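Section: Multi-chain targets

For targets with more than one molecule, the full set of components is provided together so that the structure can be written out for the assembly as a whole rather than chain by chain. Components appear in the order listed by the source. The example entry contains two components.
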Amino acid sequence: DAGVIQSPRHEVTEMGQEVTLRCKPISGHNSLFWYRQTMMRGLELLIYFNNNVPIDDSGMPEDRFSAKMPNASFSTLKIQPSEPRDSAVYFCASSLTGGDEKLFFGSGTQLSVL
Amino acid sequence: GENVEQHPSTLSVQEGDSAVIKCTYSDSASNYFPWYKQELGKRPQLIIDIRSNVGEKKDQRIAVTLNKTAKHFSLHITETQPEDSAVYFCAASWGDKIIFGKGTRLHILP
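Its structure, encoded as tokens over all components, is:
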């Protein structure tokens, strides 16, 4: 298995633009997590899905952030409009059945909003 | 709400010495406590984990201890080596939700 696949690896955009981050979890994994990493706040949980259903989005910072999981092999995290303070590394992770077991992280998307 | 506190934020130890990182969690319902290592520019990877029915677990040079009464757990690395230099994250899970501490940057000094 290729592991969790994220795209793009790097994204540079201007303030106000829409940004879409993509994630393909490991085949057979039923849980998917989106995290944001910054120096100040560490790894913050934004949202997680079980069997494609969003379970907890309390970590999503604002209405500008939205996430979807239309099927078991694909998820998106969208920021619209983007702001400079959204600059961070965004990680997607998946696990077999939930948060009480090993998470497999993707390689992350480095987002820079100018 | 759920919260995980991690200390110290930075730790420097001489090569060959031991390193200890400590974490506390807020909700006694938590039952799973993993530790992840993140090397520079890489993704976090699981190095060891412990469940609430166990007080200690060891894997070669790394060990984790859990005190459920006090709601804290610790990572111990013995005989540190240069390749141990990285950021280490503790985490705790509540059901399907997993929350990370802010991380400890470990420097191994030659």
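Residues 4 and 25 of chain A are 5 Å apart (CA to CA).
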